């Protein structure tokens, strides 16, 4: 099967994938009762950032190099989410004796600390981020999320490839971007 989608269509696929990821996260929180840890919150922010890029790209419907810009921004958001999810997976792989102690809650830190300090503390992890709340088909929730970000990254990658192929085909002709 050959998927020859334009940038707007790829953006809509990416937006739908982000909606699916957020839908699962919200269902796990509000239906299954799992409280998101600070790293989970950062991963949700990365999904929302990617969704925003895809939404703007879908509305804009760029031609030429515009798709490359949206693709790179989408890759950055998905890459940031994958990095945080990877950190989360690493924290869960630590032996219990090496797990960092639990710190103050994210809400409290946001009230009393500068944003950079909050990010630094959240990324260093805490005991609550190392808890494993269950396995689904042998994988933890952060492992599933990491796989989701890898899958999500394929969409802006396709946008980049589409834009680069389109710009190479357009060389020699004068088509507006």
Overview of the structural elements:
The protein is mainly α and 177 residues long. The chain has one domain (7-169): DsbB-like (Bromodomain-like). It contains seven helices and two strands; from the N terminus they run ααααααββα. The chain has a two-stranded antiparallel ribbon with strand order 1-2. Helix 1 runs antiparallel to helix 2 and helix 2 (38-60) packs antiparallel against helix 3. The longest helix is centred in the middle third of the chain and has 29 residues, at 65-93. The protein is elongated and about 55 Å long. Mean pLDDT is 82; it is low at 171-175.
The arrangement of helices and strands along the chain is: HHHHHHEEH
Named CATH architecture: Up-down Bundle
Going by CATH, what is the homologous superfamily? DsbB-like
Structural class by SSE content: mainly alpha
Strand content: under 5%
Helix fraction, binned, reads: over 70%
Major β-sheet strand ordering = 1-2
Overall pLDDT, averaged?
82
Question: What is the total domain count?
Answer: 1
The CATH first-level class comes to Mainly Alpha
Q: Could you name the CATH topology?
A: Bromodomain-like
**Largest sheet, strands/sense/barrel:** 2 strands, antiparallel
Our count of helices gives: 7
Rg measurement, Å: 19 Å
pLDDT < 50 stretches: 171-175
Distance between the termini: 28 Å
